[in-house]
Design a protein that fits this description.
alpha/beta; Rossmann fold; 3 domains; six-stranded mixed sheet; 18 helices; 22 strands
Length: 507
Amino acid sequence: MQEEYLLKIKDVNKSFSGVQVLKNVCLNVRPGTVHSLMGENGAGKSTLMKCLFGIYRQDSGQFFLGGEEFNFQDPKHALENGVSMVHQELNQVVQRTIIDNIWLGRYPVKKVFVDEKKMYKDTKALFDRLDIHLDPRTRLDKLSVSQRQMVEIAKAVSYDAKIIVLDEPTSSLTDHEVKMLFDIIARLKKEGVGIVYISHKMEEIFEISDEVTVLRDGTYIGTENIKDLTMEKIVNMMVGRDLEDRFPEKTNVPGDVHMEVKNLSTKYKPLVKDVSFELRKGEILGVAGLVGAGRTEMVEALFGARTKTSGEIFIDGKKIDNGDPHKAINNRFALLTEERRETGIYPVADITFNSTIANVQAYKNKAGFLTDHKMKEDTDQQIKNMRIKTPGRKEQIRALSGGNQQKVIIGRWLLTNPDILLLDEPTRGIDVGAKFEIYQLIIDLANSGKSVIMVSSEMPELLGVTNRIMVMSNGYVSGIVNTEETTQTEIFNLAAKYLNNTKEAEV
């Protein structure tokens, strides 16, 4: 008789530093199905999957694959036995090619040499199968984040795994790439593969799932067939209460012009081209656009983290020089970067270090030495204010969930008391409950007179939080609209306005 479940997880417990993060958790995945795993940040989703994948060893509990009990010693052992995982935070060798990254640790050998021709042929065949249009010989540092994400998904598929875990796989993908991913998943389901899908995007969950399991605070809440669920029911299972509104009330009232940007352009692709706009005191200005539109590059240029070829920045009518991030911080700018792992956190450092690193000068005494007491005091206050789930300030930040890492970084910048906050995808990988808290924080900051620029790929988020939306297309500003008066259709049309370089033709 064939085993009903491809994967069975039974009564798994796991603790870190005396804090129990998984409590008798169960999960059963049927062959040829997508089983979504949901819960707030810190609920234990990624920890459970890391126990499955051999990154962590559970304190107690059992794993069964095809009816046989197993405990993988490490990820290599898991991959060799048909379990593959695409992590939320990319961990790739960006100085090497796509081919090297896909076949790392399992290079085919011909006699005593690596068989480069076979690797290329196999990679090309894999990409053709998955409809991925990339040159396998391209170095990863030449790819966009979304392209690198597709490479990682292709690598997982290349192992011919029986179980594939996808942890926030669409966080960096365009709508077209999401459709490609869903097509890949549909093919894998037909082949009998079981997919464990972790996402905070409700629309995706309802589109792709067969069953949903919810965790709350490390505890198993329940498993339901997707046909028996509503968005309200999932939220209630996740947070233990009804979430009546997705967005807080916008109580901030923009005032006078605080910053003026004139003719900002950048040197390296994706280019920012002749961008000009105004930002008011107490305003939340959203930035919309497709992948490659120049949104991230624009805020990096404002912060001095990207080389400008032209452009001027005025604060309250006075020209300033944000030639590098240090100058930008002195001018009371703060930048929350798009990629936490690569440019946001110091993974092996503790929360205290990650919270205070941007404000080191404030913690020096007259002799020039750092005052630990003040650093600890401010860190503890940020942990409290931001509701960061952690055993304490000495915990390494890499041990926290993605959402709690994001809260630490936001807290870091608030300690510098900025006037202008540049937030690039501030709620990426954050659950619905924590998102509401971040939205409320952004509105509160605007209410206090601070000016906020918020880049986001989530249209409902831009429409729900901002006062105005600046749309970028192919590096240009294609339009600035009042949030209350616009529609998603208008924004999408503006985002596509200069995709065929019609701007240059007009000029």
